[in-house]
Amino acid sequence: MTAQVRSRRAGRGVLSLDALFSLVPILVMLLLVMEIEAVSVKRSEGASHRQQVFDKLVSAADYTVKSGAVVREGGIRYPNWVNEKNITNSYTDSLRERVGLNSLYMGFGEPSDSSQICIYRLVVGQEKAIKRLFVCGG
Amino acid sequence: MQSIEAAISLLVLLSISASVMPLLEEQRDIDDSLYRVQLAEDAWRVLYLRGDFRDFGEDKRGTIEADMAEITRQTGLCVFMDGVQFTSCRGNMGTGAGQAHEITVSLSRTAIFNGTPRSFAFALGN
Question: What is the pLDDT of residues A77-128, one digit of tens each?
Fold first, then answer.
């Protein structure tokens, strides 16, 4: 083996090593970009789901305080004057199905389950006392 | 020379990471603008249902401010009627800097006050 051939082979080795070291940061960057993309997609899906649930709760609560569970006297309905007796299990179940939620809670008492998204509306009860009507779901 | 290239690559990588990571960290808040308007409408409606606007005038200040205080106690939100200066929270209320309470939603309302129609802003704030 001549000295010229040996020198050429050594040169190729150095080139390969250079290429290898260049590839490592490129791969790391690609992995980073893919990871960021995955996390970003997951987060926007979560945020979009939360917003959808929130909007459905707002709609369900609005229907309830304006029509669904309000006091009616002589054919007149009184928005925000809520009769709690109208908020039965069958009422919340049918509303849950109509708005497409997995779970729905409605009541004057604050729910203990903090995992759900909750909103409240200001209403008066039967005796005209100021109350919060909680509407929670997921 | 190669060390300089490596250092530059590392700096670029770190700066990209540093600029992208905060974007991932920040949580997108739920848009509740319509809900806040509904809450303000609720507060108005609740006062109405309790008869606070019957013979509405300066004489009713005690009753109305007591109901407003009850709303504030339950919700943590200040209620403010601009023009007649009824409020459940002491201190200035507004949208600019330096206000003790920031108005988050405001409704225009007209009511008979001391026998005269009067327009005012009915507002909820923090």
Answer: 999 999 999 999 999 999 999 999 999 999 999 888 778 899 999 999 999 9
Beta strands in A1-138 (DSSP E): 70-73, 76-82, 104-107, 117-124, 130-137
Q: How far apart are CA B94 and CA B105, in angstroms?
A: 10
Dihedrals phi, psi of B44, to nearest 5 degrees: -60, -45
Q: With beta carbons under 8 A apart, name residues in chain B contacting A123.
A: 42, 46
Is A121 in contact with B49 (Cβ distance < 8 A)?
A: no
Q: Which residues of chain A neighbour B124 with C-beta distances below 8 Å?
A: none
pLDDT digits (tens, 9 = 90+) for A9-38: 666 676 677 777 778 878 888 898 898 889
Model pTM score: 0.78
Six-digit token string for A31 = 């992995």
Which residue of chain B comes nearest to A121, CA vs CA? B39
Nearest residue to A138 via CA among A96, A94, A98:
A96
How far, in Å, are A29, B19, B32 from residue B16 at the CA level?
9, 5, 33
